[in-house]
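hiii, so i know i said id send this last week but things got crazy w the move. better late than never?? heres the sequnce for the chain we talked about at the cafe, plus the structure i predicted for it. fair warning i was half asleep when i ran it
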Amino acid sequence: MQRFVARSGLLEGGRRRAQSLLRSQQQQQKAAREKEIANDVLPKMPPFDYSPAPYTGPSVDEILAKRRQFLSPSMFYLYKKPVNIVEGRMQYLFDEGGRRYLDGFGGIATVNCGHCHPDVVDAIVSQVKRIQHPTILYLNHAVADFAEALASKMPGNLKVAFFTNSGTEANELAMMMARLYTGCQDMISVRNSYHGNAAGTMGATGQRSWKFSVVQSGIHHVLNPDPYRGPFGSDGEKYAKDVQDIVDFATTGHVAGFISEAIQGVGGIVEAAPGYLPAVYKNVRKAGGLCIADEVQSGFARTGNMWGFEAHGVVPDIVTMAKGIGNGMPLGAVVTTPEIAEVLTRRSYFNTFGGNPVSTAAGLAVLKVIDKDNLRENASTVGAYMKDRLTALKEKYEIIGDVRGRGLMIGVELVSDRQKKTPANAETLHVLDQMKEMGVLIGKGGFYGNVFRITPPLCFTKEDADFLVDVMDYNMSKL
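okay and structure toks below
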């Protein structure tokens, strides 16, 4: 027994020494990076063993001219000098000149497995060589296999899927199903949310930037449970009371449902305050409504869990998904219980391309890659590491008001006054543009347009995270 205790003490002592050594190495690396930045030494992108094929297509100017002439003027692009992306591999993108960029945006939280992941590409090519589109009026195993695999990733009795082509379609369908199932019309949504750009989802969206002057009825918007800008800080139950007030004072006391994102993507990577979703789900179900989780951006391992709602300890009645579901293929889905799914049999409901075999073959490959490449664990580990590094930048630069998010869905909000939380819009655009010039692509969002959205492919490494943060650090030091 004494030998066992002594041995345990030796092991514990060795573990502590190893941890101390690791901390010392990390501190030395951090000091070296800060010295380089102070000496105006540009950060170096991690090596990557791949060379893109020579590009022989049209130039940037030619593409811009065609866009202006033949595409809707509503289609905007990032950066003062738009970048022409012609090839991608895993977490990297390449322009027409073969220049490599670190992709910190992931096609707007879409390319979870990595650009042109060989397993996903092989599944798509193999399927498209056999048959591209038979319609779901005929049998094909691809859609059934994917539905079965997707059901295995869902909690509770969420076992039935209906496939769409986008997140907007999925959310439109989910809201209609909630209304049909309950017999009520009133839906509750959250301010600052984004759920799509069709009539119903535009109504559910809680930002004026994404709304046109068209009929948007039957939606009640409640307080955003925003720990940074909200009136109740991180007290989720206080925000939840606003939902109960809406039920009591703005409806008959019965509602169709409540739709929310666990982490608002377009809204600026805002995670719901702790305790909010459990309290709201209880209130909504008491009023006869269904709870819809919009997992279009936070799903498929991005947050370190398979689904964003898992971190809040709730199980929705309906889950909507898109983006990461097909790693860039046009694919979305509504997953619900068999009982709720029955409402669509009351009439004929059909989606021509929903369940397309090429898209669903890609979806099945995505689920396999998430498990095979340990993407949940990687998103959690690398995401936590990068968030820590970004939080350290917040201590260094007064302009950073908040660092938030979970896994590889991280937001950095810039403010010109920390006390007043005044949005630093011009600085956000400037740093975003300068980071592109140094080889790092990230997005922006938030109601005020002052939040960096960092949603890279989930194969991101700690070395990639260091490069991204170092480039941000360098450009912050030049403001």
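btw The mean pLDDT is 94. thought thatd interest u
miss u guys!!
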